[in-house]
Each structure stands twice: as structure tokens, then as C-alpha cells.
Amino acid sequence: MQRQMFRVLFYTVVIGYAFMTLVPFIWSIYTSLKAMPDIDKLWVPLGNLTIENYTYIVDKFPFIQWLLNSVFVAGVVTLGNLFFNTLAGYALARIRFPGRSLLFYVILGVMMVPGQVVMIPVYIMLADWGWINTYWGFTIPFLTSSFGIFLMRQFFLALPKELEEAATIDGLTRWGIFWRIALPLSKPALAAQTIFMFLGNWNSFMWPSLLASSDDMFTLPVGLNSFHWQYTAYWNLDLAGTMYMTIPMIIVFLIFQKWFIKGIATTGIK
């Protein structure tokens, strides 16, 4: 009896929490279908809802260009992080070299530094290089991250050393061991890193808003911010654009969901 009561209580809490998280999303969809005169109304008849907001932002704004910019920037940065973070994480976990521990502690220290601290120095550096309002400035400085290196290092540490020893006996080089053994086994960590990096850069607003000075270089978060004026905001258009932004995030998460959960569960276990 007590077990059944506990199960009922557990599922009640879980369903209630799920409902609380879904309500803002459902309300955003509902508001994105409202016409401008109805934006302040709590309830609008279903017959008055319209998809004109979705077609309007595509027709009247360079929305497709914003979308392509976001896809390019998030895609390049994600691929760069997967490549560099994985190599660095493997080197720190498996290759002995002078200063390895010190370098790892430096990376941990970088994780603790707020991004706002380095905004001005990085911006000045990019301005000196002429990378403001360019794809170079949007991507190159963000092709690696201390968190991604830490994530991959912890995962590679959990791999049995016997696998590498057997591969060495079979004649594999260090690169062969990494490419044919370590990398295929690191799919959970790679999936987790893909989701973190893609979603983080897809939703990024601070750096794109600083580096972009023309409409054709805006990413989606920066472009959608143009719907906000000093004294008013077009929330129906803003939320319609937000729904467009949400679709790629849902697709990426659904594709890597299985590996993501496995990666979070196993990373750091030695």
C-alpha cells in the first residue's frame, strides 16, 4: 500500500513538473498565432488565430539570411569543437608529456573565468585583425572550449588501458589507436558535446550582437531582437521567429538524445 502511494505521489509530481515546463512553450505557440490587435488579450477564439506572423517575418525581413548565418556559425563552431576538444582531451588523458597536469589545471581555471571578463580584450583583438562583421570573427575564436576539453578528457580516462596496450601489440600507432579504438568508443561523449555546443551557439546572442554591424550578418537571436523597439515590442512576430528557432534544437536533441543521456551518465566515471 505504501509503495503504491509513493508511486502515485511520484508520478503526480513528475506529471505536474512536466506540465509546468510545457505551459510556457504552448503559450508561446498560441501567442505566435495571434494577430497584432489581439496580442494583449488573454483568450482569443481559435477562428481568429492565423499563421500570417510566420509568413510575414519571412517575406518582410531577411529571415532566411539570418537562418543561414545561424546554421553556418553553429555548425562550424560545433564541428571545430568536436575536432579540437576531442584531440586535446585524448592528449591530456592518454599521452604523457611535460606540463600535462599544469596545462589541465590551466584549462580548469579558464572554465571558472566569466565570459564577460574577456569580452573587451577579444573584441579589440578581432577589431585589429579586421574580423568584425565577418564569419571569421563569428567562428574562429570559438572553435574550442575548456568545458569540451574537460568533458572529453574525463571520458577517455574511463576507457580501459588494456585496449590500447592490445592495439599497440597489434602494431597500431598512436593515431591509429585514437582513430580506430578511442574515437568510436567516445560516441556518448561526442553526442553530449554536440548538443551542448550546437545549442549554446545556436542560442548565442551576446557575441553575435557585438560582432555584427549589418542586417545581412545577423544570426537569428540578433535578428529577432530587431522586433523590439524602445516603447513597444511585436511579441507575436518575436515568438513566431522563436518557434522557427526551436525546430532545429528539437531535431538535434532527438537525434543525439540516446547518446547524450549515456554520455552524461558515464562521463567522469573512472
Automatic annotation (TrEMBL):
Q: Where is the ABC transmembrane type-1 domain?
A: 67-256
Positions in coiled-coil regions: none
User: What keywords sit in the KW lines?
Assistant: Cell membrane, Membrane, Transmembrane, Transmembrane helix, Transport
Q: Where in the cell is it found?
A: Cell membrane
Membrane protein topology class? Multi-pass membrane protein
Q: Where are the transmembrane segments?
A: 9-30, 63-90, 102-124, 136-156, 177-199, 233-256
InterPro entries for the chain: MetI-like, MetI-like_sf
The record's annotation in PROSITE patterns points to:
ABC_TM1
* Source organism superkingdom: Bacteria
Q: Does the keyword Ubl conjugation apply?
A: no
Transport keyword on record: yes
Which CDD domains does UniProt cross-reference here? TM_PBP2
Q: Which family would the database say this protein is a member of?
A: Belongs to the binding-protein-dependent transport system permease family.
What is this protein identified as? Carbohydrate ABC transporter permease
Organism expressing this protein natively: Effusibacillus consociatus
Q: What is the lineage of its organism?
A: Bacteria, Bacillati, Bacillota, Bacilli, Bacillales
